[in-house]
Amino acid sequence: MTYTYRLAGENLELAEAELEGFLKSQRIDEKPETRNRLAEIDSEPNQLKRLALTHEITQKIGETSNLDNFTPDWTPEDSFSVKCKILEGEADNQRIEEKLGEKLSTENNEVDLENPETEIYVYVLGGNKIIGKLVQDIDRGLFNKRSNEKRPFSSPVSLDPVLARVLVNLSKTPAGGKLLDPFCGTGGILIEAGLCGIQPLGTDTKKEMVKGTKENLEKYGIISHEISQKDAEKSLSKFGNVDAIVTDLPYGKASKVEGEIEEKFLDLIKDFDGKTVFMYDKPNLGDMKAEFEIYVHKNLTRYIYSLR
Ligand SMILES: C[S@@+](CC[C@H](N)C(=O)[O-])C[C@H]1O[C@@H](n2cnc3c(N)ncnc32)[C@H](O)[C@@H]1O
Prior knowledge:
By secondary structure, the chain is an alpha/beta fold. Helices cover 25% and strands 31% of the residues. It folds into two domains: 3-138, 2-Layer Sandwich (VC0802-like), CATH 3.30.2130; 141-307, Vaccinia Virus protein VP39 (Rossmann fold). It binds S-adenosylmethionine.
């Protein structure tokens, strides 16, 4: 069985890395094969809703260069719809949808565009058409429902839920693991970790952030957490064994003394042998180089570091 992931195009490199991190979190070592924005793997996935930079996942039912000669070895058993996505080259969506609809029609099924039991996707990649049935749709709207202003406690420092989820997935932490955000702020990263079944641990020097993070986590039903008012440099000694450190370092005014936070953070991760993923406003930190650049808006670029 092959599964096809249609990745979000806005930052394809990051979407591919998120998928790889996610697969590792599911203890899948297989490396996806990518063509354009499609990534294919044979391993059976779980927890697909963890992904933030994937549009949908389909189970492959065929691939053809010519739909006229395509003979499906599987047909839907009830109502179905066909959606065509052109990823490379030019094609007539509607014609392709109609043609594939005809090929998949039997006396036992019917096309229903409103409320189909089975959704079929056909991806056009130049001369090739890759056909699959929907396994999981990723609803980005659900991430937006958790945006900063919709939480009980909010602050301008808060991280966008999609980006926070990507950082969590890059950390490869499985459900049941422990993830530490030493500069937790409003808990943006910890909420996403908690929703993936990972235990969130956090520290912040500000009392209101600690209280706010707890409120935010509990709003989403994440009860098993440990959040403490502490300096980040004491966070590992407080929590002991953690699987990953994932954080968004303080910027500008929040970092108060330029350089001091960097030193503290470098010191914190120096002997840590788990995975470390962090975001910062500089492309280099110590002798580390950022792996991804995120354009947030005009004059605001962030960099993601993913270590080990
Ligand atoms: C960029 S914000 C983190 C935002 C967070 N990712 C969120 O989604 O809300 C950085 C946080 O680090 C905290 N902070 C600054 N210096 C700190 C230190 N030495 N130890 C722990 N927390 C610190 C600030 O209070 C601030 O809440």
